[in-house]
Request: fold
Amino acid sequence: MSKMRVCIIGAGPSGMSALWHFCQCDKMPEVVCFEKQSTWGGQWNRTWRTGFDEHGEPVHSCMYNDLWTNAPKESNIEFPGYTFEEHYGKSVPSYISVPVVKDYLEGRWSRDFNLKQFVRFDSPVRYVSYNDSTHTFHVTYENLISKNVINETFSHVIVCSGAFTYPYTPYISGLDAFEGSVLHLRDLRHCHMFKDKAVLIIGSGFSAEDIAIQCLKFGASKIIVSYRTKSLISNWPKGIEVRPGVQRFHAKEAVFTDNTKAEIDDVILCTGY
Reply:
């Protein structure tokens, strides 16, 4: 293949940033971005759905309602040359909600170029192979609307499909017979469902920290954060208790590695991907 033809997999922040920079080139190569969702945004395209979407594809976004950024926008979200203040025309706090970020991203992607013309939505890539003799990539994708499976050839492939789709769920003795509800953070959408409940949160990262505070905000009767290594917070708000790792479950009782016990209604796994 003499002409450069670039495939970008994923129309989230990474994929769209790559596409935006290609548009800066004096001689832009042919670029096609494949996105399995019906719109751009990746994780920031928050949805009420869990599990599978309307096409039977795994739901991509794991963001829940009331989620705010856990780092200042200036340090990890804001693009050089396009500030939040420029986008909104006024001062914007450092910590922001999901809709605020999504609107900002769409502004960045729409201001200088019509980037949507390069994106094929509802088109998940199913398979990519490399041909050693022709030095080209063969990309197989499906059009979820027509159900057609199509093959195309590219000189380059950029994978921007994210890392937060398939949750990691650790094995804990007795969890399969636990009499309360168990869900991974990926399938959590509202914390008000834990009002007046005793909630056990397993994990010690930023997600566990935020979910514990959200459950406190929405009126959980008891909140225990269990961590295997070390908690990120040394001074938790009143109403949140910290325990070591969970050894086993029995009925609705959690037994921790220090042999203490607690009656639990619900378990939330903040154990990563």
In short: The helical segments are 13-22, 73-76, 84-88, 98-111, 206-217. Residues 5-159 form a domain with the FAD/NAD(P)-binding domain fold (CATH 3.50.50.60). The radius of gyration is 22 Å.
